[in-house]
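Q: What residues go here?
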């Protein structure tokens, strides 16, 4: 069984999609072993508890610097024999040491078609730019921000009368499809990373 850690900062709807996918038997060889939040009142922590999953808040403000914070993150992860880390609305850049410790075992969901609209508020960036197609991307995490090898993408149209919020909601529905799909592929050992390219084996 692959033990999964999910890092979150907020609402946790993507976390929920993973939990639901596992509970419905869609990803037989995985379990969410711990959910870690950098935000105390993140609803994602409650979702975890509702499913009997360990929910851990690590307060970044109680550490002298990012390095110390991530040491604590590594310590907690170390308690669970983690085989896969998911970033599900985790609003921090993961540092080098965590990436090196879990090379090609960290997966992020991003609400745009990378490499367009990296960073925060990608749906609003895309809407404000005036694109007619946006979407979402699941990718391995490397040292850059939203730059790692792409696993899956799904296109989502921008429709007449949309605003940034209606577009974001349409994208979110697809996030909830492709994130569990990518996790399933990873857990089944079907993803191979060759440089930038992710090959399905
Ligand atoms: C999702 O749209 C996710 O793609 C995005 O935050 C939202 C979290 O929602 N992530 C990023 O923007 C990463 N920079 P959720 O907490 O309901 O899953």
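A:
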């Amino acid at each position: 069984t692959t033990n999964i850690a999910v890092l979150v900062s907020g609402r946790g709807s993507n976390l929920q999609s993973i939990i639901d996918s596992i509970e419905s038997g869609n990803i037989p060889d995985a379990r969410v072993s711990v959910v870690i939040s950098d935000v105390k009142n993140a609803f994602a922590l409650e979702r975890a508890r509702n499913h009997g999953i360990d929910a851990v808040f690590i307060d970044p403000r109680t550490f002298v610097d990012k390095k110390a914070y991530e040491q604590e993150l590594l310590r907690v992860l170390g308690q669970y024999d983690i085989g896969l880390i998911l970033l599900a609305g985790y609003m921090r850049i993961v540092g080098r040491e965590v990436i090196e410790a879990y090379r090609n075992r960290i997966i992020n969901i991003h609400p745009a078609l990378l490499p367009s609209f990296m960073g925060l508020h990608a749906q609003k960036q895309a809407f404000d730019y005036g694109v007619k197609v946006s979407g979402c991307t699941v990718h391995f995490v490397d040292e850059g921000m939203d730059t790692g090898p792409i696993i899956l993408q799904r296109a989502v149209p921008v429709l007449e009368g949309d605003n940034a919020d209606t577009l974001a909601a349409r994208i979110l529905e697809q996030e909830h499809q492709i994130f569990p799909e990518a996790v399933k592929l990873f857990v089944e050992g079907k993803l191979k990373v060759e440089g930038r390219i992710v090959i399905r084996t």
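A: Context that may help when evaluating the design: Residues 17 and 177 are 8 Å apart (CA to CA). The longest strand covers residues 30-37.
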